[in-house]
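Dear Dr. V.,

Thank you for agreeing to look over these. As mentioned in my earlier message, I'm a first-year student in the group and I'm still getting used to reading structure tokens, so any feedback on how I've presented them would be very welcome. I ran two proteins. I've put each sequence directly above its structure. The first is here:
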Amino acid sequence: MYLKSIEMQGFKSFPDRTKLIFDVGSKAGNGGQGENGVTVIVGPNGSGKSNIGDAMRWVLGEISSKSLRGTKMEDVIFGGAASRRPMGFAEVSVTFDNTSEFARLDCPYDEVTVTRRYFRAGESEYYINRKAVRLKDIYELFMNTGIGRDGYSIIGQGRIAEIISRKSDERRNVFEEASGIAKFRHRRTEAERKLQNVDANMDRVNDIFTEVQSQLAPLEREAARAEKAIALLDEKKRVDVQLWLYDTERLRGEVSGAEEAVRRSEFDLRNAEETLETLDTQSKKLYESAQSSRAEVARLAEQIRVCTEESFSLDGEYRVLENNIRHAGEMITAAQDALSNADGAAQAAQAEVEAQKNRIAGLEAAAVEQRKQYGALGTQIDEALAKDAQLQSEIGQALCDKEAAEREATDLRVRVSVLENAKNSDGSRTDGMLGDMTAYEEQIAELVGKQASRKRAADGYAAEIAKIDSEKEALQTALTGYNETYGRASEEANAARLRRDSLEQRIRTCRAMEENFEGYAQSVRYVMKQYAEGRVTDLHGAPCGKIYGPLSKVIRVEDRYVTAVETALGANLQHIVVQDEATAQGAMYCLKRANAGRATFFPLTSMRPQNVTEEMRQAAGFAGYIAVADTLVQCDARFSNVVSALLGRTVIFDTVENATAMAKSLRYRVRAVTLDGQQINVGGSFTGGSVNRNGSILGRAGEIRHLEEQAAEQRKALEEAEAQAGRLREQIRDMTDQIADLDDRRGLIAVLMNTENGQLEAVSATLDAKRGLLAKLKEDYEQIIGMFERYDSEIAGLREEEQALQEKIDAITAVRAQKSEACADLADRIRTLEEERTHVLITVNGTEKDIETAQTLCRTAMERVRTCGEEKESTVARIAQLEAKLADDRQKQTQNRTSYAEKEAELGRLRGERSQTQQDADAFEQKISDLNERIRQKMADKEVIFRACTVNQNKLDNLRATLDALSGKLYEEYNLTRNDALALGYPALQPEERDATEKIQTECRNKLRYLGHVDLDAANKYREIRERYEDMKTQIDDLETSRKELTGIINDLDTEMRTAFTESFLQINQHFKTTFAELFGGGEAELTLSDPENVLESGIEIKAAPPGKIIKSLLQLSGGEQAFVAVALFFAILQVNPTPFCILDEIEAALDEVNVERLAQYIRRYADGTQFILITHRRGTMAAATRLYGVTMPEHGISKVLSLDVRDISGKKEGDWDGIFG
């Protein structure tokens, strides 16, 4: 197996889909021969290089956000940038080639792709070759390969030295993974869990087994009584079934005869109903035809009226034309006379004007009277038509009322028949109901006793369960309190542990900073390192004197004066105290030789103390004065001159206000520093502002002491919290066991109570059914008795209603005949009025034409009077015009006569059709009357048939009710149907055997009553309890066997793990010694077990001493040495259990260039068996690469990956590499 590629999207600073392909040589693909690739990933600080290593650890199952350099898992999702919105998920896929036998995954695929996807909502998805899996599946897939989430193949940034800095028992995970026992330990954990389950099951089964064993003897005695009762019940069941079959067979014969009679009656009744339906259909059709005829008569009358009006209008037009012709002739004659007598025309015309005016006045008066007469006739016609429509509506409504009354009369006759039949049938039912009520009362009394017995037993069980529930509730309440207390105690313990670990980490960090001179100038660190290695010499190579270290290392100051003294000393804190001037010269020569910068030295032989001035003595009298600065510093006597030389002329004040007042009074001749770091210099300048207390070099020692005191307090608090949590755990475990015991006991009692409740419900249900039947019988009996009296009164009332309806029908028929006659008279009057109105209309039209003619003649005469001179010429034209109009009027008169003749013919036709239609309507009315008489006769026949059908149906219902009651009795007692009873095969009874069989039935009932209450299921319960007893005994044996097998498996796994771990530990120890000597160029290293007798739980101690050094603790090693020791251990593990690939993130950060080159050679040596993916800044590491990736951040927060060809930069000089990725 080897690593092919990793693909990221939305992971940390990689929002875009980014894929890295890793080099691999021929070994992975050709069975283990050749050289795998070394991939190096480089880039500036903060570009996102380490996110690639985090992505690999995350996709392989890492669930700790702290291990991924985050505070919560959501931090792995791209959080957005200036030009990009935050993403909703992060996804990483890693692909492995699984074709090689070397480190092959336990998976059937030749290529394995593991994918992990995390959404911002908190949901996670895991896939293997795009198939959804669990996190557990991924964990198990990589177990014992060294590349899982707990493996040693991925070493994150700054984590290489953790192998050394961890406690001895915390180092076991790496060694167990290397020795291949992680899978064994996983199996052992599973076996222990199963063993705990087996023990819990055994405890539970033993409790139930004891309870079951105590039930056997009582159930055995109850089973013997049940067998006797079952024999009697079987005998009773036989005779009950035989009697039931005999009685039901007899009743079935009677029912069959009654059913046949009912069928015949129903057939006759259906025929009568069908005949009535046919007649009713015919009646409806005739009524519709009559209505249609009446509508046709009305339509023809309307047409006759319209045609008459048109005829009268034509006649009027003819008369008008005739009058026009006459007047036209007169006008022509007058015109001709005018022509013959022109001289007397004017006088004649004037006389004619007067005559025409008189005539017009007379005609207009006549026209007014004629119009009034025409309007009066129109009003009379409208009133007559409205009255006719009302009469037609009343006639239709009378017919509907008549039909409704006839139907209601028929219903009344049917109801009378039903009441008479019901009265006859209910009398025969009351006799059988009295016997049934007596039998039900006896059965109810027996069931009440059974119900009370079952209720007492169930209440006893319920009381016991309530008691158990009360005890359980009290325990659960107490348990809840303990759980809450335990939760708080656990939280306090965790908080104390976190505080302790945080303090210890800070202590280690502060100590490491002190030992490594963190915060000091590079030149100071270089001098101290060279002095530690014995390399500080003079020009001739002779050793120099002693270097004591920076000034901050040789003095001590109380915490409250640290800021003031550190401000007063300033950069002097980093200046180096040396033995003499020669030592200072040797150190400067060392810096110059290495071009390592500049430094200031304080030789003890040349430093002179400062004397107190008069101004300083005066300053002591001012408010806020504390002391001269050198008196606040504690140090060895040999360093007092140095301290005095630096601080002897500086005074300390509490506040800047007091210091300012003093300096101003003494004309700024004294240097003053305040407790919060404000400074007033000689000459009057001020220096001040905020002070970074966290970066205080001088305060580190005090901070370490303070942190150690806090850590001791937290350790004590943690021990107390863990002790209290342990006590609470024991109490919770005891209460949980008590609750489990109560649950088991309650479950057993609940089973018994449910059994009793089930039997109680059965008895109660039977009792309720019996009571319901008895109540129904009583209610029916009382209703029947009360209804006899109501029957007679209802029948009499119905007959009276029927007589009243018949009278109403006769009255409606008479009224309808009268209205039909009135309707015919009204139609004749409408015709007469229409003729009169037409004549008046013609007269009005003639009068209007006469008026119009007279007006024309008058206007003409007046015109002639005015224009006598022009009369002759216009008279000739007028005569021609009048003659043309006369010819036209005569032609219109001829056409009018033709149209008039046609209208008269049509009017005669319409009157004939109306007469025929009226006759048809009268015929339909007669048919409807005849058909209604037939319907009344059929209804009477139907009543007779219905009465006979009702008698037969009542008889059948009584027989069926008796048969159903008998059938229900057998089903209620034995849950048997007739087919089930016949299937039992009991011999059929003969009539003479019935009495003897009934006697046997009575004897069986008496014997059962003597036996009393018997649990018929006791035999089955005994058998079930016996079988359960045997099964549980077998189950206990099986559990004991399983327990022994699991214990054996755990012992075998311990043996295998002990052997595997011991062998691999010895091999790793041997390789560790060799690798350490090779990397350090000598020295000694060794791995030991803190508890050799307990190999599987023992911690692991690491001892390492570089050449020329005696190291009692690994913490005495420098950071680089610790990292190199961890590298040596890492390669020792790889030699014992090589992994297919390793991802190393800046593991050489603490190494110098020589050791980096040495590490690169080691990597190249092991690259023939393992892929290496290295994240680095170091050029020596880059030189080992076969593939080089560069990570840049062109936009803040977004990383990009560039693939570089190693050949393009392999020829570059070391200085030319700068800026490749910057």
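The second protein is here, in the same arrangement:
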Amino acid sequence: MTILDERRRSLLTEAAADLDTAPIDPAELIDLYHRHVLTEDLATRHPDDMRGGVLSHLALARTRQPGEILVAGFTPSVETHGWATGNTVLQVVTDDGAFIVDSVTAELDRQGHEVKFLIHPQLDVERDGEGTLVGLGGGRAESWLHVEVTRIVGQDALDGLVARLREVLTEVATAVADWEPMLARAAEISASLAAGPESVPVEERRQLQGLLDWLVDDHFVFLGYRRYRYSDDDGILEQVPGSGLGLMRGGSGTSRRALRGTVGEKAAERQLLIITKANSRSTVHRSAYLDYIGIKTVDADGVVDGEHRFIGLFTSNAYHGSVRAIPFLAGKVDEVLAASGFAPDSHSGKRLLSVLETYPRDELFQGDVDYLTDVATRIVSSRYQRQTQLFARPDVYGRFTSCLVLLPRDRYNTDVRLRIQEILMTSFHGTGVEYTTRVDDSATAMVHYVIRREANGAPPAADLDDLQDWLRRAVQTWDSGWQAAMVAEFGEIEAARLVARWGGGLDDAYKAMHQPRVAAVDVRHLDELVDGVRASLHQEMSAHPGERRLRLYCDRALRLTEVLPLLLDFGLAVTDERTHRVVARDGAVRHILDFGVSARDESWWAPGDDEESGFLAAFLAVWERRAESDRFNQLIGSVRLTWRQVVVLRMVAAYLRQTMHYSTGYLESALVENPEIARQLVDVFEARFLPGDLEDRDAREQAAADAVLASVADVPSLDHDRMIRAFLAVIRAGERTNFYRPEAGGAVALKLDPQRVPHLPAPRPLIETWVYSTRLEGVHLRFGKVARGGLRWSDRRDDFRTEVLGLVKAQMVKNAVIVPTGAKGGFYPKGLPDPQRDRAAWLAHGRDAYREFVGALLSVADNRVRGRAVGPDGVVRHDGDDTYLVVAADKGTAAFSDLANEVSAEHGFWLGDAFASGGSAGYDHKGMGITARGAWASVTRHFLELGIDPQATEITVVGVGDMSGDVFGNGMLLSEHIRLVAAFDHRHIFVDPTPDAAASFAERARMFALPYSSWADYDAALISAGGGVFPRSAKAIAVTPEMRAALGLGDAEHLTPTELIKAILKAPVDLFWNGGIGTYVKASTEQHGDVGDRANDAVRVDGAELRCRVVGEGGNLGASQLGRIEAAQRGIGINTDAIDNSGGVDSSDYEVNIKILLGSLVADGRMTGRQRDELLRSMTDEVAASVLRTNYEQNVLLSNARHLGGAMLGSHERLMAWLEQHRGLDRALEALPSTAEMDRRAKDGRGLTSPEFSVLVAYAKMALKDALLASSVPDDPWLEAELAAYFPAPLRGFAEALRNHPLRREIVANRVANSVVNRGGITFAHRALEESGAGLAEVAKAFVIAREVFDLSGFVAAVELLDGKAPTALQCRLYVEFRRLLDRTVRYLLARRPQTAGIGAEIDNYRDDVRRLSGTISGLYDEAGRARFDRRAEDFAAAGPELSSRVAGLLDGVAFLGVVDLAHRTGDDPGLVARGYLHLADVIGLDGLLDMLARLSSEGRWDAVAKSALRQDVYRLALALTADALALSEDDDAAERVRLWAARHTSALAGLRATFGDLQGESAGLGQMWVLVRDLGLLTGSPE
């Protein structure tokens, strides 16, 4: 027994339990009752329902007489019957027989009752004489029928149904009872035909006989029979009493009636056989119209005298067998074939037979040969025509019309069938219809309709040709209409391809919603779609004004949330949405999203003048991210701007969001609510920038701007007024844009003059380039045409310009040592992926944004071609040539240099890979260690000032970074005496409380050599006791005693990582080395928010909390400027990051300038690209040496400034005031002290700090460079030596290329400016400017002459040899002494007006004589002078005998230029003149006089000017007196000539000495000094 069997047995057993069915065994009854029910169906029945159905059926069947039909109907309920199924139950008990189930279910279907469940047990029952059921088996077979239908509401309806079923079953019983008699009657008629009548041809009788025999042979269900008599005389047809059988038994129908008209004619025809359809449906077997078969009888004369009439239904065998096997039909077929003229074995003959085989069988029986021949031959002939055909045959009795419709199979569907049916019903006045269909694998579908009508009604007057045309139009199915539309749209060949590909993918839902012509447009878009989205827009005929249908075609399913916000931004209302999925034959999947959209009026959709106009172009631009979605898009409809024109406004608005306090939404409102002004702003932009020879461009721009201003006057909102004026200002400040370049469509660049934008904050750069696209926004700020700085990847969406502006200030300070001034750029990529989920995608998106940003900057830059500037195509320039555009790496773009150079190459930019330094063919900063080495120069100088040599003495260090980093890793390997106590990066905290210097150095070197490393790679065995490496993700870190001692911690037992980092920053160590990213030190007066580095707010400390002795800022922005100053004021050695880490900037600038030079050589064919790269690499060490030299000199400069302390405070104040007035210095912005603060410091004896000096250094150099570039000084031929000296030795031989270097003047100016400030001091040039009235360029020129004449480089080299050997204070004193020499010498040179000689001539005029005199000065003194010389030398004895001797005579050498000039005028030997001068100086007490002058206050500008003028007067008078003295005699000894002169001026000299003596005890002022100088002047040319 199977599992199913077991399940069945269990169900039946449960149902039979406790069931009272006496006298029948319940188990037996239950089993027999359900034996034909599937187990699966039984499983759905509740046992109670099974029991209830059996018991109710048993109750109905308890008593029944033979032949009695019992029918009951009820809706069981648990309350009433104890069981329920939710359905109405119908139960039947009757004699078993044929057609019971078919007839009952047919009637139920006819009345619209759905059968839910049916059981038909056929039981052998035993009944007693009363008809009472006494048992099962051995008796008569009965049919018990249990049917459940959907619930019937109302008892009357249920009773009516029960009564009707009883009638049907009665008819079934009647038909079944007479079945055999009817068969016998048919057989008898067949047999009688063999004998006659003679009047009927034998062949006809034979065919009729064969048909009757075939019908009897199970091809016809006989349901009724009757014999009729017919009188040809009066046309009376009457029933033969008692002849009826089956459904025609008894007196049914009209017993006698007269036949008239067509019916009468047909009745009188001699044709014996009538086959047609009756006008009533069968209630037995199946619900179909009864088939009527009549066999007429004739008398001896062949006159019709009666009829044998059978009604019934052809069996399925009759419909499915071959027509050639059916008597009567076989003959018809032969006749049709013969009439067609087709040979039986021909293709057409076979096709005709095939048509007849599939022809509706009823039509073959009923139609005559002529009709069938016509229809069949026409079907054969039109086989290859895709036309709908109609064949109509009216019933001879007028009761129906038989319509055969043939149509292309692919056009057939239910909708088409119903449309045809409706047309036929209308045309033939139908009252009812039946249909059959035949749809097989042939190209044609066949539908046979029988249109019923009233038999006595007027016949229809249908024109079959018109009707056929009507049907053809009706069956022009959606598909056929679409195919026609496709042909019209694409032509036959292309349409065939598209239909084949897409036809199967358009579903019924799509077809129901869209017209075929619309579908043709859809298919074009679907087929042309590769990826992304295509769109179409159309207006339906029924649409209201302003309404349109927007259709989107995409290769993926679109979400409503993706599209709806875009449409709302356009100001459109969305009324409905439809979606369709279309699958092509090749499997390609496409989606259509169809929107109903509505604008406020019809004018919104007005067409534009070009393909970029209008909504559709704008929508696609937004979708494809060529434009952004915002309310600016409403201007496309309101004032019909193109989407590109809207980009102009959006671009400016994005800039205003960065520079004003208004939000994007507010900026949008200003223009959307004033659309005509928006249009006018675009007019201004186009007038200013649209390429072409526009006449009166300036006038047109002004007129457009005036129109804006006139309109603004009527704007009621003050905020809107301000915003619109700002829009106008930015557009008119624009110098050039790439908006109209041929490749426009990417990022838009607007280069503008910030000075013309009133609302911009200070400082305002010289040049600003704003870049905007859907993928990024960016800005590039340049404070000069030759400017350089990094491009950073910003994370500050709303204020990255503020961030960049703050950074460019530091860049200007840093760039003070290099050729270009400061520049900085920043970009913010939009729509970045989440780096936590997909960092690779995030980085790729950022790289793409960087590429686009760089490309946009280059698109508005001028190129250099053959030494000439060439402007970019399609760009209107309102500024001068601007060819220098150089960028560098910055935060987030460290690895992007090659990418930038790749973009440069794509643009054919003249700088090539010099555009972005540090690429694969550039200088590797990490490999050179240049940034760290430069910062180490600062650290070293600070320690030397503390008396510590970090290269020889161990120093404790804490730091930010790890050994894989450039600055930290390289820095921590610059001394073997570093004891790294602690460090941290973003991953770990490293603590080594008592490190071994040698072992830890070796371990750091090992880690640095690894491709990648972190502090976790540090050998734990080498970490001293109490230390370790801790992840920053740790919740807490245990504090060891060793850590507490090393880091100066409190009593806490545990610290969080944040707390430990703060402790490291505040550790009591020698050096804090910042080699990481972030700002870790601020001032106590600052808030964390002021710093702009939220990531490190938790760990940042105040400058006042630092306990280190020195800070080295290898990384950028390690401390805020105020934080540095606060630390420096507490004695910590600290500069700025701009000073400390300028090595990277400097080496990059060298790389750029060298590449420019080498690029010209490659272009001229003088070397190959490979040779260039090899030469570039070979000069790495020399470039590094030059860079480090600059770092060293700047630190010496700062060291000297710190040494002088407050002595120069007045000069510093005047310099800052001058810079404020002439160079735009903002003291507050640069954290420089105000005038009031300077006064306080003066009273306290405190000077500026090193961080403050660092800023002043930069401004002093920048001012000097600008002045030089504005002058002719850089063009002086002698300075070609400066140009050559800038470049490494291997390049100095390319003299012509050097002279043609595009940045020749800038390089020279930079070197001269650095030399002046580094060696002359921060205020040197400004003081000379103040005191002499000369320009800065003249000061610099004089400095170069003095520098070369007095061999500054030799002196400096000697002083530098003292590094680490002598105190830095001594070195500073030596430098200051030489500065005094330069100060006074330069003023002498500036006093010689006019100055027309070149630098070289001046040097040649003085150098040899001055150097000879300086070298022999000790022998030129008299005894008093020599004593004074020796005292000075003794004061500098620690510098060594040679250097101390040189410095002892420096100030006396100030007069040597005058001495040489005097010697040249007199023709005397310079040595003689010098000896005479020195002796006369002692005679007149010049040294004391100069000392008194030096003690004069020079805090105020005019005091300083007066003091300088007096000093120059003293030197001038001394030289004049020397000339007088030397002119008195010809003695070879100048001393004798001076003695002679003194003897002649005894009285005057006595008076001078007396006055001098009187003043020495007083605090002499300018007045007294003027008197002295006047008295001295009285000695000239006036012997006593």
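From my reading of the second output: The first strand starts at residue 70 and ends at 74. The mean pLDDT is 90. Does that match how you would interpret it?

Kind regards,
E.
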